[in-house]
Automatic annotation (TrEMBL):
Organism listed in the record: Amycolatopsis iheyensis
Domain (ATPase AAA-type core): residue spans on this chain: 23-343
Annotated GO MF terms: ATP binding; ATP hydrolysis activity
Alphabetized SUPFAM superfamilies for the sequence: P-loop containing nucleoside triphosphate hydrolases (SSF52540)
GO biological process, one term: DNA synthesis involved in DNA repair
Membrane spanning stretches: none
InterPro entries, sorted: ATPase_AAA_core (IPR003959), P-loop_NTPase (IPR027417), RecF-like (IPR014555)
UniProt superkingdom: Bacteria
Protein name from the UniProt record: AAA family ATPase
Gene3D superfamilies assigned to the protein according to its UniProt record, in alphabetical order: P-loop containing nucleotide triphosphate hydrolases
Keywords, sorted A to Z: DNA damage, SOS response
Length: 383
């Protein structure tokens, strides 16, 4: 389980170190940095697939995502720093857990004759054992293009390996013979799952019939909803699925019907003479069923991150959603980003919740009432 998340210089997250629990709820007013925190987690996950550079490009490149304020933060009465930075440009992301920790440091390249001078480079990466980075706990250490690993004797392997500056060692160097722990960390990060604002418009993928295949993990766009629900039914969780649906929509039930290999959702609602297809469902009903398929997954990830799951749901559905989230938290670690106080209260009634409240002060995202001594222990690998 992850116990700490650290972000430095990503948008409004100038210097943030968060404690994580089995079920962490991140809340705060609009503009406090909740979405930035969600995107920072996604960016960290992309690094394990060598997608960090492309992900940053979609956000306008590294310069567009860096903290725009003074290097040491804004403070009332202090002279404002000029636009010239005095320290190397760096976007840092990392996490620590009971077993392993990982951190990366992305910076700009030394300018050369190329059109890709805005592509960030990996300046440092580190994987260590235990919850805190210490020199003796390092398992794999990357400085620039060079990667070194611990040998079986506990000392550093005399052979170093070279990779491209735009590649992560998680994706380009995960040799189980040289450092099996690096492979373990990579696969754990790659199992992280993110869901963010399912589409429910008339052309939404979840409303379209689709050829049926066993689906243990709902697609990010919900396009395989019928297959995912039928898979939940066939693995033996039909009664649990029926109970969730009845709690949210009393007297209602779900069915999946095949026609020439294509699976179609049928929603039997109390008081109606015929079932409704996915195309006929209200936005809120369809969105809730998507959360059902996502949270009752037969293949739980190491970490499941939900961004504002309450969106477009009627307040009466939030207690049922809270029970769904609490049920999923028994099998996987969850981070829920939400500004719905009713959902947060409902979660606190059915599960043990680690609440993290964000606020913005002088443009910088901070944890409410977190002092220096309250922060989890964290150290960045130095350049």
């Amino acid at each position: 389980m992850l116990t700490t998340l650290a972000v430095e210089n990503y948008r409004s997250l100038r210097d943030l170190v968060l404690p994580l629990s089995g079920l962490t709820v991140v809340t705060g007013p609009n503009g406090s940095g909740k979405s930035s925190l969600y995107r920072a987690l996604r960016l960290l996950a992309e690094a394990s697939r060598n997608g960090a550079v492309a992900a940053l490009a979609l956000e306008g490149g590294l310069p567009s995502t860096l903290w725009a304020g003074p290097e040491n933060g804004s403070h009332p009465g202090r002279r404002v720093q000029g636009t010239v930075r005095t320290k190397p440009v760096g976007l840092r992301l990392g996490f620590a857990g009971d077993e392993f920790g990982y951190a990366l440091d992305l910076g700009l390249p030394v300018p050369t004759e190329t059109m890709f001078n805005l592509d960030p480079e990996f300046k440092r990466e580190a994987v260590w054992s235990g919850p805190v980075l210490r020199p003796a706990a390092l398992l794999a250490d990357r400085a620039g293009p060079s990667v070194r690993t611990r040998g079986s004797s506990g000392g550093w392997d005399p052979e170093t390996f070279r990779i491209r500056l735009t590649d992560s060692m998680l994706s380009e160097f995960a040799d189980p013979r040289a450092c099996p722990e690096l492979l373990v960390v990579r696969e754990r990060i790659r199992s992280w799952r993110f869901y963010d604002h399912f589409r429910t418009d008339a052309a939404a993928p979840a409303r379209q019939p689709r050829a049926g295949t066993r689906t243990f993990v709902l697609a990010h766009d919900g396009s395989d909803l019928a297959s995912a629900l039928q898979t939940i039914i066939e693995i033996g969780r039909a009664s649990e699925l029926a109970s969730v649906v009845d709690a949210a929509f009393p007297g209602s039930r779900l069915a999946v019907e095949p026609l020439d290999g294509v699976l179609s959702l049928r929603f039997h609602q109390h008081g109606l003479l015929r079932p409704l297809s996915a195309a006929e469902l209200s936005d809120g009903t369809l969105r809730f069923l998507l959360w059902v398929a996502a949270l009752l997954t037969p293949r739980p990830p190491e970490l499941l991150v939900l961004n504002e799951p309450e969106t477009s749901l009627h307040p009466d559905l939030l207690p049922a959603l809270a029970v769904l989230i609490a049920t999923a938290a028994k099998e996987t670690q969850l981070v829920v980003v939400s500004h719905a106080s009713s959902l947060i209260r409902a979660l606190a009634e059915v599960a043990e919740v680690g609440a993290v409240e964000l606020e913005k002060e002088n443009g910088e995202t901070k944890l409410v009432e977190q002092g220096r001594l309250d922060r989890p222990s964290w150290h960045w690998p130095k350049r």
